[in-house]
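QA checklist item 7 of 12: single-chain prediction sanity check.
[x] sequence parsed
[x] length recorded as 115
[x] structure emitted
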Amino acid sequence: MNKLLSLLGLARKAGKLVLGFGATCAAIENDRLQLVIVAGDSAKNTQKKIERICRRHNVPLYYLLNREELSRAIGKRNQVVIGMLPHGLTGALEKRLLSVKSNNWRWFDDQNTRA
């Protein structure tokens, strides 16, 4: 999990993250994002909206940690929704997301939400 959080921090420093619900939704609508990460403790309404937009644009969506841990990883306060722009770190981060065996996250796909 530490490697995953480190990769998020590196992506932030490289300027490859889109932060916040509004900015992330706009970037999805413009087909600029490769994946989206949402804090597991985000509001249900936020989750439903972001799931709908990600499904419509075929963007992978991951629920990870809580807002405090996610915010600490990227060095910004109160971050609930994060979008990742296409670059080398995104592929490494997605591989790490899929390989981590933890109860602290789940991902969303077209068919269902897996725990």
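[x] summary fact logged: Helices lie at 2-13, 21-29, 44-57, 67-74, 88-99.
[ ] second reviewer sign-off
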